Amino acid sequence: MPCVGIGTTPQGFAHQGLTTPNALVTTSAPLYAIDPASVVRTRLPNGLTVLIRRDRSAPVVAIVTYVSAGYFDETDDIVGIAHVLEHMYFKGTPSRGVGEIAKQTKAVGGYLNAATIYDHTSYYTVLPSSGFIAGLDVQADAYARSLIDADELARELEVIIQEAKRKADNPPAVATETLYELLHDRHRIRRWRIGREPGLRTLTRDALIGFYRNFYHPVNTVLSIVGDIDVEVALAEVERAYGALPSGEPSRYPGSTEEGVAGFRYREWTGDIGQTQLAFGWRTPGTTHPDTPSLDLLASVLGSGRASRLYRAVRERRLASSVSAYNYTPTEIGVFVIHAETPPATVGDAARGIWDQLRSIHDGDVGELEIERAKRILESQFVRRLEDMEGQANYLAEWEAQGDWRMGERYLERLLTTTRDDLVAVGNRYVHPDNAGVVVYRPASSAEVATDADAMRSLLDGGPRPAGLTPPLPYSPHVIPPASAPVFEREESGVRVYRTANGIPILVRIKPGAPLVHAGVYFAGGCVEEPAELAGLTSLMVRTAIKGTAVRSALQIAEEGEMLGGSVGGGYRAGELRVVDLGSGETCRGGDRAARRRRAASDASRRRVGDRAIHRARRRDCDARRHVPLSDAPRGRDCVCGTSLWITADRE
């Protein structure tokens, strides 16, 4: 672990220290990884790959069945069939009628679900360890002996068709899949992946049986099991339930691949929507390509967190209500996407703001600190996946399907060793202006943005460049006055209760497993204390709480949280207010996490609420809350009392 100076007080209350608490700590070693020795990998004679890992941190077990068959495996006459089969998978077997699979899983305290995407379909169940054998029997029965009843299929198709219609009424989904279609001339990723009503109505039981029998072979499947189970017993049960299944190789009919370069492309259309969808995209390589970790990091530099470039250049400047960036790689192909939702009046300025940040990347204007911030965010996301059994089981299955589950750690190592030069190089190689696809999906009543690709390119390249981003001020640590150590009072159900000299309770729960910390400062009160004429005051206060304090700007709050691999936010319920929440991503990489927790908590009572921040928060809230006077926002602090600090960590 990269933290240093870890110690424990006589009462057992953790403290940590660094000789240079504000120094940037950079290391290529992953913060947390699954020990290869803890995973038993077996391949049954029929070709089924089995991964089993014992994790005793909680008395539960996750079972994941990962089949390498998805939308990319559908020929044009059966688009959507992989998703339809997913719906029918749990609809009955010769020994379990319709509804029995879910009922039997719930009877032992578990739940089950499934998901289909371009390159795979996965089925999973999570249940108490005591129900492992029963749960495994249900999963094996569904995998090997699904009936796909014709009458049940007809009923389920109506459900799926309604799902497809809802998706067609989802502006972000429409914009994203239209972008994929625009970028690709031949590849199957250009198709509307869930299928459309006319094609779905032509799917027959025979077609589903054919797809099922072709792809659902043991050799095309990974079975991943993680939880509080005995590995040898679990393996014996797997061999009993799956060992007799026949082997077989799926017949694949791959679609066409893309050739050449995309060139600049543009599409604009209108619909009955309220906001404009603006999306940029580029073709990128697949999951295992050596440049993929650098592209993922580039997307994080651009769009992850409130300190990211796009958030500051577009969202903070009120050009868009949301903006994100990601590099999506369904195995064999990739798409780098920047997606914003904007008011119709600002879509042109938002597009130029996004374009200008890409131009800065191409020019090499990337700072080491922002790269480190993005690395910590991605590493924290990586670690959070491994926090529970379901996340671990899916992680093992997904990477094993790529060739070896240990590739996941190698991917992370490559990401953490990406340099500034690597980032600029992949930006210029893949995210090039000349090969961008741009889509604008706008309200029918709004003005046209650009008539064609040339006009859009002129809009992006022409005119003065947007104002550059203000470099963050050097952080000067706020010194907290010395205070006596909190006194340990008692322990109940694994929760340690401490109390400060001024009576504030501190609740600490140690959770074995991933090295994560969840920390929050809670107050009793909130909206139940609001007078009627100030309804919404609590919400307004929570929104402005992260917009600056007496010792930190809004950007500093965002940067410090994200440099910890997490974020700082707030929330409320009827009788409770949470002003500081360091979230599940606060890892210990980067220094003194305990000291930073204390600084953030002390800041909760020093909120500096500015008129500008209140105006912004109030614009995003409901009409009732707009009646709260600006002068009353700081009064929200007077409506709460009974402060408590709650911390969940992987260790003391």
3D architecture notes:
This protein has 3 domains: 36-242, Metalloenzyme, LuxS/M16 peptidase-like (Cytochrome Bc1 Complex, Chain A, domain 1, 2-Layer Sandwich), CATH 3.30.830; 265-461, Cytochrome Bc1 Complex, Chain A, domain 1 (2-Layer Sandwich), CATH 3.30.830.10; 487-649, 2-Layer Sandwich (Cytochrome Bc1 Complex, Chain A, domain 1). Helices cover 35% and strands 20% of the residues. It has 20 helices and 20 strands. It has a 7-stranded mixed beta sheet with strand order 14-15-16-20-17-19-18. The chain has a 6-stranded mixed beta sheet with strand order 3-4-8-5-7-6, with helices on both faces. Strands 9-13-10-12-11 form a 5-stranded mixed beta sheet, with helices on both faces. Helix 17 crosses helix 20. The longest helix is centred in the N-terminal third of the chain and has 19 residues, at 150-168. Residues 1-28, 584-602 and 604-641 have low confidence and may be disordered.
